[in-house]
Design a protein that fits this description.
With 321 residues, the protein is an alpha/beta fold. It contains 13 helices and 11 strands. The strands form 2 sheets. The protein has a 6-stranded mixed β-sheet, with helices on both faces. The protein starts with a helix and ends in a 5-residue tail after the last helix.
């Protein structure tokens, strides 16, 4: 009888363990591994949300930047970590949507299938911009010039998002232009300001300050509707070209098979933070909008975005490197 009692007591303790874990999480510092440099859009917006979570919950969340290989270095670090909720990362259109079609390393890591998709955080529009003092003040002027001299005009890109969206714009408008790669979007923007290249397709966060100060001009938006941040800029479809409906996004991922109590905690925290007006305003100042989505719906969204961006990569004839 005593042995039976002890066995039943042990079984009851094991059954109660997940509940205790859920109540205790997080019980130690959480590593948040960002596969991009400090100060990048992904890094900055992640910190806005993480700061709010820290302040509300008292959780210790340490951001660790591991830039390189289109985010592959950070993803690999997270995939190798224990699935206990103490190593997480930002997921994004750069690593999960356009990246797998551009990078052999990302294809090998397969972030869409090999990670736990915890929750979506933000979205951002993508704009085609030119030098305000240049010759192409409208999308039609740019397209006409490119058609008059095929392969004479150039676009610069310093990210997977910039590369694919620029190629998608070129395809939709029927122009042939030469791509110029850069080590980051800021370098491409600098050269465009200097007149070395003709246009850049970029997330609003990278170009909005220049547009607002008047040194760059946004001539088209690669979206299904106009942006509230640039309401006077038409979409590619509104301009009479084949519509291009691409938007960037940011989320949070962890290693495969994260415990349900961990994803539940993060889902609750993201819901609260993304509803906070102060967090929303900070995001908007960076050219992004809060865009919450969690659970299986977020996983379905990630799958759909990889298919959408992958189709544009294939249409452009871009080969992974």
């Amino acid at each position: 009888m005593n042995k039976l009692f002890i066995t039943l007591a042990a079984a009851a303790a094991l059954a109660a363990a997940p509940l205790a874990s859920a109540q205790d999480y997080p019980a130690k510092p959480i590593r948040f591994v960002v596969g991009f440099p400090a100060g990048s859009s992904i890094d900055t917006v992640s910190r806005v949300v993480l700061d709010d979570i820290r302040e509300r919950t008292g959780a210790t969340i340490v951001v660790e930047n591991r830039p390189g290989a289109l985010g592959a270095l950070g993803i690999e670090n997270v995939q190798r970590a224990a699935a206990d909720g103490y190593t997480l990362m930002p997921s994004s259109s750069a690593t999960h949507s356009s990246g797998p079609g551009l990078s052999v390393a990302l294809q090998r890591l397969d972030p869409v299938k090999a990670l736990t998709h915890v929750g979506r955080v933000a979205r951002f529009d993508i704009a085609v911009v030119t030098r305000a003092a240049g010759s192409y003040g409208t999308a039609r002027a740019l397209v006409d010039a490119a058609k008059a001299k095929p392969d004479a005009l150039t676009y610069g890109y310093g990210s997977g998002t910039g590369q694919v969206s620029s190629a998608a714009f070129s395809s939709a408008t029927g122009i042939q232009v030469r791509p110029i790669p850069y080590k980051g979007q800021p370098a491409a923007i600098t050269d465009m300001l200097g007149g070395q290249i003709d246009f850049v397709s970029s997330d609003l966060g990278a170009v909005l300050p220049f547009v607002r100060q008047g040194s760059l001009k946004a001539i088209a938006l690669l979206a299904e509707r106009r942006s509230s941040m640039l309401p006077d800029v038409p979409t590619v479809g509104e301009l009479g070209f084949k519509p291009v409906e691409l938007s960037g996004w940011l989320g949070i991922d962890g290693p495969a098979n994260l415990p349900p109590e961990v994803t539940a905690w993060w889902t609750a925290q993201l819901k609260t933070s993304l509803a906070d007006k102060n967090v929303q305003e900070k995001m908007r100042s960076l050219g992004m909008e809060a865009w919450p989505l969690a659970g299986s719906e977020f996983g379905q969204f990630v799958d759909a975005q990889q298919a959408l961006w992958g189709a544009h990569v294939r249409d452009a004839g871009i080969k992974p490197e």
